[in-house]
Design goal:
This protein is an alpha+beta fold. It has six helices and five strands. The strands form two sheets. A three-stranded antiparallel beta sheet has the order 1-2-3, with helices on one face.
Length: 153
């Protein structure tokens, strides 16, 4: 693909490497990124080019000028974006506003879950501030508590 001239079309007929003559490669080149979809003959090549355009524009809005490093270091987010657009081989959403709304909701949930890691320390400090005269054990001492062993039946 990288050796093809810019003046040629963005479709390649299938061969033995991609599953046979019933399949096509539909690709789009943006700066240093290539986006390639392998589709069967029932798909519209122009529809897939439009799908690639929506995908790239959504990536660009999420990552602010998407580049190779964004795709490498945030592969989970890239997959999530693609799953918002395509599910089970079917295009389910092409409205960029709708896609971004779902992505932002997912990011809010991830931030809430990340905050749960510090929940025990926050609960401990809250209990201590509510009852300053109560002698609570130190948080470090709580980590050394051993659980009782149960006999096997």
């Amino acid at each position: 693909l990288s050796k093809r001239e810019d003046s040629v079309c963005n479709f390649l007929e299938g061969g033995t490497l991609i599953g046979g003559s019933d399949f096509r490669l539909v690709y789009r080149h943006y700066a240093t990124l290539y986006f390639v979809f392998c589709v069967d003959s029932s798909e519209s090549e122009l529809g897939i080019l439009d799908l690639i355009q929506v995908f790239v524009e959504t990536l660009d809005r999420c990552f602010e000028n998407v580049c190779e490093l964004d795709l490498i270091f945030h592969m989970d987010k890239v997959h999530y974006i693609l799953q918002e657009i395509v599910m089970g081989g079917m295009v389910v959403e092409t409205n960029q506003t709708e896609i971004l709304t779902h992505i932002e909701a997912q990011q809010r949930i991830e931030k809430q879950e990340a905050g749960m890691g510090g929940a025990p320390a926050r609960a401990f400090s809250a209990a201590k501030s509510m009852a300053p005269n109560v002698n609570l054990p130190k948080l470090a001492d709580l980590q050394n508590i051993s659980l009782p062993s149960f006999k096997k039946l």
